[in-house]
Amino acid sequence: MTFNIRIKNAYDAQNLNKIAEKYPFDIWVHGKSGYADAKSLLGLMLLTIEQDVKLVVDDDIDVELFKKDICQYFADEEICDDKKK
Question: Which residue segments constitute the domains of the chain, with CATH numbers given?
Answer without folding.
Answer: 2-84 (3.30.1340.10)
